Amino acid sequence: MRNGFATQLSSHNTNLQNLLNAYKEYEKNLPISLNGKTHSSLPHFNGNKSQPVHNWFTYKEGFSSELLGWICREIDIDLNNLKNILDPFVGVATSLLSAQLSYSGKHSLNLVGIERNPFIALVAKSKLDWHCYDKDLISKSISGLIDKIKKRGSTRFKIANLSTLKNDKIFDRKKLQDLIFAYEIIKKDFQNLPEFSFFKLGWASIIESVSNVRKDGRALRIVSKEIRPPVYKLLEAKWLEMLSDINILSSNDTSHHCANIKHKIYEGDGRTLDTLSESNSLFDLIIYSPPYLNNLDYSEVYKMELWLSEAINSQDEFRNLRLKTFRSHPSVKFPETNLLDCQPNNQRAVILRKSLINLIPDNSQKLARIRTINGYMDDMLLALQNQFKFCNVNSHVICVVGNSIHGSKDKPIPIATDYLITSLAEIVGFEIVKLQVTRFTKRRDYVKSSSKSNEKPKKGN
Q1: What are phi and psi of 397, to 5 degrees?
Q2: What's the Cα-to-Cα distance from 236 to each of 118, 203, 240, rounded to whole Å?
Q3: Cα–Cα distance between 167 and 115 in angstroms, integer?
Q4: What pLDDT, in 10s, does the model give residues 164-205?
């Protein structure tokens, strides 16, 4: 056994060194910038919790509301001169909301976002619509809604067929019934009004607080929570906080600038951009943070919100949603493709992929990991190909990515997602203008943990 382990470890160390050498060799071709300092907060959502409207829903996978402004300064573009911005993996619309709240140009600005997860798409649209809500109606309605929600009595509702919702360790039965009852009241009073989105988003934002779980990486983890206020108090506090944001922004005349800004959130595929097929618009700026190659299934992480908000109503719908997601995780068995191998000039990307796959240990998870890596690179290549079609000569494409470490401490598998993506972007025809490192993390001294690549199309060059 000892000799067998030593052989396996030696093999791993050799393959690890080969992978690191492949990274180092590819690194020679990249314009990497450290700027002598780090910007560790930019790839994280945490700072948004104190920002108006950004804080309406906590999205752990989002990036900072300050990122867009920093990027504009880094690549020397004026937001007020832009006319069309696309985020094909829009999430909760941090990028587009930042543009909306910062823009003060004189011409019309068009903001477009695409999101696969129907609940997250709802969050994005509800936040961008902040200036469309009737704040006086909201102000007058909150107390009435709270009074109705307090009076549930013995009314009970059927629980959706999701084990998480039926687990007593995750939800107190009374609190879950109160939560569902509150949603029914909101639907009854506001379903046909624009303000329905406001109240629904506030309601959805307290689901995690009502439960006994917290979102932790790729899973929902059961935790011990201190006694929390009843549902109606959590709702009242959240709605009043949201209303305060609208009042503050309105008093700052931010809503006046929104008159020149149009926004559209599509529930669709950020890889194919098929929802844009009838549009002839080219985008001045494409900015996004795609799923990372880190096995994170966003439909799993936000399943409570998906089911309770009725965005998903059956296990078949839930599985179909997973099958439509980016192939960054092995939660379902995705169809296999062979897009990268069919591309000319793919040598750098293929070398990186092969070196990475060679490092995967020979165990029960090997095939799934290989399928995930192949699927991820094909999906990212497809996304870049379609983004290129919507760029003009002067367009900028900003991709915010995070690297990761798979495997164990003694057999690490460093995944430089930024290098994988830039190698694919070169195949498509993008010029890699800069790969900006924003932070380093512990245990990852030999791999950058997060970066921003600025890709510029070579059309006409």
Answers
A1: -120, 120
A2: 25, 9, 6
A3: 29
A4: 999 999 999 999 999 999 999 999 999 999 999 999 999 999
